[in-house]
């Protein structure tokens, strides 16, 4: 957070994503049907709901890695204007600051961790990403930043090729950080991670949000949701049916009945 001329702390301006009548069906079955909804009202928003509720599909629709059947999704940058994301190619999303974790994206059979991340760091910005390897200044700049993130997550050997699912997950989060998102979508970023690494992921998410990035996180580890999120959206059967502060969502009858179960509250 910054401070204004009077010294008062001012919240950083964040982008928002506007979803308007977004519908997606597979084989005649509607899996997403989201009316007018704004994402990014709060710095960190949780998106929860039962398996199959449409959370991942909604994120894919935002990234335009899946096309909408109808409706529109746009980015509202803090300075004004509107970018119609649903007519942009997925490859342009990082350029607009919209970044999503992908779980498994990098080919570690051929490239080292460092080289994979170097390429990932510039994929949204360079026409020819491989040029990062021949431009010393760019290489140095990104290398330092990558080392910083790898050290934080405890990667000691950056020249490895084969990695566990958990390591790939963390490296995908590092990739997201390197892309300098203004709007970050995280789909189950801590699934399968041990507690200490889950804490670290939460720390970087908090830091990003404090610096002005809007974050939407899907997570089944509800401790992460309750601890991290300023606001929670509850999705069921393709629609966002409730939103509110974590406490009110946690104790809401519908959420308990459809998702949390009676023993939870
Ligand atoms: N590519 C696809 N083809 C057919 N059905 C799909 C496809 N992707 C998702 N679905 C279906 O859409 C529904 C919502 O899935 P998803 O968005 O992955 O839910 P969530 O992430 O909330 O668990 C599920 O019933 C799923 O089977
Ligand atoms: Mg999912």
Description:
With 265 residues, the protein is an alpha/beta fold. The chain has a single domain (14-260), classed as 3-Layer(aba) Sandwich (Rossmann fold). The chain has helices at 55-63, 113-122, 136-152, 165-178, 195-210, 222-228, 246-250, 253-260; strands at 2-3, 9-10, 16-26, 29-34, 37-39, 44-48, 70-76, 83-84, 98-100, 183-187, 214-218, 231-236, 239-244. The strands form 3 sheets. It has a 6-stranded mixed β-sheet with strand order 9-10-11-6-12-13, sandwiched between helices. Strands 3, 4, 5, 7 and 8 form a 5-stranded antiparallel β-sheet that branches. A two-stranded antiparallel ribbon has the order 1-2. Helix 2 (113-122) runs parallel beside helix 4 (165-178). The longest helix has 17 residues, at 136-152. It is globular, with a radius of gyration of 19 Å. The protein binds adenosine-5'-diphosphate and magnesium ion (MG). The site of adenosine-5'-diphosphate has 10 residues, from helix 1.
End-to-end gap: 33 Å
**H/E element order:** EEEEEEHEEEHHHEHEHEEHH
Count of distinct structural domains: 1
- What is the residue-averaged pLDDT? 89
How large a portion of the residues is in β-strands, by DSSP E?
15-25%
Oligomer: single chain
Q: Note the overall shape.
A: globular
CATH class designation = Alpha Beta
**What is the CATH architecture term?**
3-Layer(aba) Sandwich
**CATH fold annotation:** Rossmann fold
The count of strands amounts to: 13
Distinct ligands: adenosine-5'-diphosphate, magnesium ion
Whole-number radius of gyration? 19 Å
**What ranges have pLDDT less than 50 throughout 5 or more consecutive residues?**
none
């Amino acid at each position: 957070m910054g401070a204004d001329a009077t010294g008062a702390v001012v919240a950083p301006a964040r982008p928002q994503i506007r979803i308007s009548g977004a519908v997606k069906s597979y084989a005649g079955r509607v899996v997403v049907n989201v009316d007018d909804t704004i994402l990014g009202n709060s710095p960190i928003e949780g998106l929860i709901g039962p398996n199959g509720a449409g959370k991942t599909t909604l994120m894919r629709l935002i990234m335009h890695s899946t096309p909408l059947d109808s409706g529109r999704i746009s980015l509202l940058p803090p300075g004004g204007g509107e970018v119609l994301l649903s007519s942009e190619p997925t490859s342009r999303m990082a350029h607009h600051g919209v970044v999503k974790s992908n779980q498994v994206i990098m080919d570690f059979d051929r490239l080292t961790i460092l080289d994979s991340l170097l390429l990932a760091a510039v994929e949204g910005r360079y026409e020819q990403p491989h040029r990062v390897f021949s431009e010393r200044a760019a290489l140095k700049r990104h290398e330092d930043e990558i080392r910083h993130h790898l050290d934080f997550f405890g990667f000691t050997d950056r020249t490895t090729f084969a990695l566990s699912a958990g390591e790939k997950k963390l490296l995908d989060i590092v990739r997201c950080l390197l892309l300098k998102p203004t709007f970050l979508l995280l789909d189950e970023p801590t699934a399968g991670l041990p507690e200490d690494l889950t804490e670290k992921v939460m720390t970087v998410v908090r830091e990003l949000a404090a610096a002005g990035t809007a974050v939407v996180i899907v997570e089944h580890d509800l401790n992460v949701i309750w601890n991290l999120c300023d606001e929670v959206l509850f999705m069921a059967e393709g629609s966002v049916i409730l939103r509110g502060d974590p406490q009110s969502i946690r104790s809401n009858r519908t959420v308990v009945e459809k998702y949390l179960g009676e023993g939870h509250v």
